[in-house]
Structure formats: C-alpha cells, structure tokens
Amino acid sequence: MLKAKDIMTKDVISISPDLEVTQAAQILLQHGINGLPVVKGTKLVGILCQSDLIAQQKKLPMPSLFTLLDGIIPLGSTKNFEKALRKMAATTVADAMTSKPVTVGPETELQDIATLMLDKNFHTIPVVDHEELIGIIGKEDVLKTIVSGR
Fold this sequence. Notes:
By secondary structure, this protein is of the alpha+beta class. It has helices spanning about 5, 20-30, 50-55, 80-90, 95, 110-120, 140-150, and strands spanning about 35-40, 45-50, 65-70, 70-75, 100, 125-130, 130-140.
C-alpha cells in the first residue's frame, strides 16, 4: 500500500507568516498550486490556500443582533464574524492563513489521504514529521498514482 512518503512532493514551496498576501497570491498563481504551507524555520504554523485569499472578496456575514433597553445584544457568537473580518482585512499571510492545518504523517496510507481530501474538501495536505514540514500532497499527487498504476 502506498503511503504519504511515497507520493508527496518533497521539494516544497513554503512561505513565511509575515509575507504580504499579494506576494503569496503571486506565488500560488506563478506555480499553479492551490496551497502553500506557512513555516517558521522548519515548523509548520499554518497553510494558505486560494480559498483563504478569495475570502477577502466575499460579503461580510453580519451577525444577528437585537436591541433591549437601548442595548445591543448579539444572537449567537461573534467569533465567526470576527474571524471573517480578520481574513477579509488581511495584509499578511499570518492574518489570512488557516492556523493548525490538518496534516498527515509520512506513514499515512494513500486511501486515508484520499478519504480526508474528499470528506473535508481539501486540495492540499502538508506532510509533517515531529512538527517539521517534510512534504506536501495535492490532489494531483494522488491522481499520478492512478496514471502510474501504483
């Protein structure tokens, strides 16, 4: 059975959390990739995907509010509103990235990776070993296994 270490891309293009989002978008477009691991040194701290940057162009989801005795009371949590606002106003990768991304280890089997990609709608999954980024798997890497007959 194929494992992450067998299909991952080892020469990973990664970015720093303090990089400007416009520069990160250029890297995504230039290399024709969907996601970039965000690292400090060799430690994975997040992932920036095209969807994280596209979020800057969406409508701001306004939280439901009601007034009582001249006070404004939110209905539900304002946490999602604050998160959306932070992503929309992001100027650096740290502001736009997904922190604590889902990762796999080098021994994760291909069928588990494919299941994760389909169930969670992930296009890019970092491969880590002891918090250190060692590779990345995109949907294209999984498709290559079909073509090669592995």
